[in-house]
Structures are given as structure tokens and as C-alpha cells.
């Protein structure tokens, strides 16, 4: 395969990855890594490096829009980034000592869990219970709705912080944003409205990926020849996916369709990991 052919295939595949990631809400990294390892035979560590760089690019673009709209809780995001950055750096260091086939199995397992989480019905229920620690750290906030601003309170700060460390470790090992796990921590544990948890998670993903990317860069696992078409393709795919969601009256069937595709990719990753083909 020539360099040009490889680049064009990778660009087209990354576009599809960004499209799928946008429509399912899981991010392009979940598709980029199986594409590179299973279809193109790229070493999983280089695939993770490319996925981290694409996560930084996509998060930076979309996060800016959500911050401008006033939905993102920046103070909460920056506080929780302490946990995810520590976890991401730890995970990236550990990844060098974990066999590639085990990473593939873990990736497939996390992918299945994330796909199931993405299909669960979301709630924008507002919590009004007070938390001493959240009040001291000024983590409570509000977000705009049709009738004005809706105030909410944050609870179980310690539990959410602990879950963010775990999400960061998984992100560092697998090269994904772990957005679904962050949303679970904020939505399920800290009782933050879903709209705020998803946008704040998006705000955090880029920083988490950057912490891991530093380690991968030092080890030589970030190859510009792979990263460039991946970043361009994923960003364009994510933009297309967001437009499709806006124009489609009911996107539920799209989410189920593409979640099914992602589940197939996850099973393939686990199968190849068990056989040691990755």
C-alpha cells in the first residue's frame, strides 16, 4: 500500500469515525482505534496516540461553543480536571507496561459499556439539595432554558472526584475521552442535569487527552503521518454528524443503528485481543 492510498483510506475512515462518534455521543476515538488496528494493521499504541490528538482537536472546537452558550460549568470542569489529569497521566504511564492484547480486550469492554450508557434515557432533573463541600468550592451553577436560567446544586463531590480519577486512568490507557464515564460521574453521582454534564464533559475531554498525549509523544507513539488525516477526518465527520442531528426530526433510530455498529466493533476488538492478533 502506498503512502497516498493509506492516507486517503485513513481520511475516509476518520471521517466515518467522527460521524459515528457525533451521532452516538461517544466521540470519534471509539471508532478510530478499531479502524487503525483491525483494518489497517497499525500498532495499538500509535492508534491510541492518534486518537488522543483527534480528541484534543474535536473537544476544543465544540467546547468553545458550549461555553459561549453558558451551559458548561467551567468551575466544576476545572476542579474535576485535577482528578482526570492525574488519572490520565497515570494511565498513559501504565499503558507502556500493559500487553497490547489486554488493552484491546479492555477497549472492547469499555466500548460496549459506553454504547449502552449512550442509549439510556437521559434526564434533566434538577437537584436542589445542598452540599457543604460544593458550596465552599462554589461548584453550584445554572444553565439557560427557554424560560430563563435554571439553578442547580452539586452533591457527592468526593465520590465524583474519585470516579473522575478512574475515568482519567481509562482514558490514558485506551486513548479515548471517556466522555460516557465522566457523564455517569456527574449525572449519576453528583446529580448534575444531563445537559450540563455532557457539555462540561466535552470541555474536560481535551485537557484529559492532552495529559495522556504528552506521555505518548515522549515515547514516540504520535506519528504525524497518522495523526494529520485522523484529525482532519474526525473533525469534518463530527461537524457533519451535528448537522444531521439538527436536521433529523427523530434521531433515536440513528443512535440505535450506529450503537449497533459500535457494538460489532467492540466484539471484534475483544475477539482479536483474546486471539492475540492486535
TrEMBL record:
The chain crosses the membrane at residues 32-57, 78-96, 102-119, 161-181, 201-218, 225-246, 252-271. Residues 1-100 form the SSD domain. It holds the Pfam family TauE. It is a multi-pass membrane protein. Keywords: Cell membrane, Membrane, Transmembrane, Transmembrane helix, Transport. It is found in: Cell membrane. PROSITE patterns: SSD. Belongs to the 4-toluene sulfonate uptake permease (TSUP) (TC 2.A.102) family. This is Probable membrane transporter protein. It comes from Mucilaginibacter roseus. The lineage of its organism: Bacteria, Pseudomonadati, Bacteroidota, Sphingobacteriia, Sphingobacteriales.
Amino acid at each position: 500500500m502506498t503512502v497516498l492510498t493509506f492516507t486517503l483510506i485513513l481520511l475516509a475512515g476518520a471521517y466515518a469515525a467522527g460521524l459515528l462518534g457525533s451521532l452516538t455521543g461517544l466521540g470519534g476515538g471509539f471508532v478510530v482505534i478499531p479502524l487503525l488496528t483491525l483494518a489497517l494493521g497499525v500498532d495499538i499504541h500509535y492508534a491510541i496516540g492518534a486518537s488522543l490528538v483527534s480528541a484534543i482537536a474535536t473537544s476544543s472546537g465544540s467546547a468553545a461553543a458550549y461555553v459561549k452558550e453558558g451551559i458548561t460549568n467551567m468551575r466544576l470542569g476545572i476542579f474535576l480536571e485535577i482528578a482526570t489529569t492525574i488519572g490520565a497521566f497515570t494511565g498513559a504511564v501504565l499503558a507502556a507496561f500493559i500487553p497490547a492484547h489486554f488493552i484491546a480486550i479492555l477497549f472492547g469492554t469499555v466500548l460496549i459499556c459506553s454504547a449502552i450508557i449512550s442509549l439510556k434515557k437521559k434526564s434533566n432533573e434538577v437537584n436542589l439539595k445542598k452540599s457543604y463541600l460544593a458550596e465552599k468550592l462554589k461548584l453550584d451553577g445554572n444553565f439557560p432554558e427557554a424560560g430563563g436560567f435554571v439553578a442547580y446544586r452539586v452533591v457527592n463531590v468526593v465520590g465524583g472526584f474519585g470516579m473522575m480519577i478512574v475515568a482519567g486512568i481509562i482514558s490514558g490507557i485506551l486513548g479515548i475521552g471517556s466522555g460516557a464515564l465522566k457523564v455517569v460521574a456527574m449525572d449519576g453521582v453528583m446529580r448534575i442535569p444531563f445537559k450540563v454534564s455532557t457539555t462540561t464533559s466535552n470541555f474536560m475531554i481535551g485537557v484529559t487527552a492532552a495529559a495522556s498525549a504528552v506521555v505518548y509523544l515522549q515515547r514516540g507513539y504520535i506519528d504525524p503521518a497518522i495523526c494529520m488525516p485522523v484529525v482532519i477526518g474526525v473533525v469534518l465527520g463530527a461537524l457533519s454528524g451535528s448537522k444531521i442531528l439538527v436536521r433529523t426530526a427523530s434521531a433515536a433510530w440513528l443512535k440505535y443503528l450506529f450503537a449497533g455498529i459500535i457494538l460489532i466493533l467492540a466484539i471484534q476488538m475483544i475477539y482479536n485481543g483474546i486471539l492475540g492478533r492486535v
